[in-house]
Amino acid sequence: MPRVSIIVPAYNAERYLKQTLGSAVVQTFRDIDIIVIDDGSSDATGCIAESFGHPVRVVRQPNAGMSASRNRGIASSDSEYIALLDSDDVWHPQKIQRQLEALAQRPDAGLCFTGFVWWHGEDLSHWFNEARSDAKDPRFCGWIYHELILDNWALPSSWLMRRSMWDQTGPFLCDNQQTDDWEYVVRASCQVPLIKLREDFVLYRQVSSSLSKRIPTSNVGELMRESLLGRFGLASPDGTPVDRRALRRQRYKGWRNFADAHCARGDYKLGLRTFGQLLADGPNRTQTILSLAMASRRRLLSRS
């Protein structure tokens, strides 16, 4: 039984999958199992994964989405630890090793996540050769629900979690793939302490087709935040309160960004209605008006 299972959901991922899996098989910690969930791909995704041989294995399924694929992969494993890796992201070679060291120092912690780099595919050869430590970020260690409800600081490709935590917390929801991972890590943060490593161990690839780039027709991020607040309240399990001022800022930013995206390149009427609601609710009316003007200008320029 491998000590760490790495779950890689993959849908039509042939363009980047070889590089992604390459970064997993060269981890300095070797007792691993890499499970690629071929989520109904119509390209060479499955063949590329199979070409690696051990320790990569492929599980095929009809297309079900990211969250269902993660659940399937974890259910197909029996390791002590579980890591997630999206099919276009890339790891530093010491990622798993340093996270295991950190979790060994905190037996009460259920999940370790790390810093990451927003990456557009440029050559970062030096990044792979730079040594990393297990230095912690104290702001995000312990009971951190009060931080995670403000923003999704924990990139899924940076997670390493204990199976015991997964058994306690349960599977990913499959309601909305843009918020399911945030819902999961917030839910986990209300049951066990978490750890963040200060340094970056993940290259988070930015591509125009990424799920995170699509404009939803409803503000799924803010709707999820309100759902989480309703379920878990305004304090971490140790009593640390959510910063109310920061929460107001994040709510405003979430709705402003939603309105901005639609006015600039989405449903213009929806964007206008949302900006109108922000103006009616206040505060930050000057900033709201400026954002509306800039978004409308970007839309006009894109059509000229």
Give the secondary structure arrangement, pairings included.
Elements: E1 4-10, H1 17-25, E2 32-39, H2 45-50, E3 56-61, H3 66-75, E4 81-84, E5 90-91, H4 95-105, E6 111-119, H5 125-129, H6 145-148, E7 160-162, H7 163-169, H8 180-189, E8 194-205, H9 220-232, H10 244-265, H11 268-281, H12 285-303
Parallel strand pairs: 1-2, 1-4, 2-3, 6-8
Antiparallel strand pairs: 4-7, 5-8, 6-7
Helix pairs in contact: 10-11, 10-12, 11-12
Strand order of the largest sheet: 3-2-1-4-7-6-8-5
Could you give a short account of the major beta sheet?
Answer: 8 strands, mixed
How confident is the prediction overall: mean pLDDT?
96
Helix content: 40-55%
Structural class: alpha/beta
The count of β-strands is 8
Radius of gyration over C-alpha positions, nearest whole angstrom: 20 Å
Distance separating the two termini: 60 Å
Parts with pLDDT < 50 across at least 5 consecutive residues: none
The quaternary state of the protein chains shown equals single chain
Hey, roughly how much beta strand do the residues contain? 15-25%
Order of helices and strands: EHEHEHEEHEHHEHHEHHHH
- Count the helices. How many? 12
* Principal-axis shape: globular
What does this structure look like?
The structure is a single chain. The chain is of the alpha/beta class. The chain has twelve helices and eight strands. Strands 3-2-1-4-7-6-8-5 form an eight-stranded mixed sheet, sandwiched between helices. Helix 2 links the parallel strand 2 and strand 3. Helix 10 packs antiparallel against helix 11, helix 10 runs parallel beside helix 12 and helix 11 runs antiparallel to helix 12. The termini are far apart.
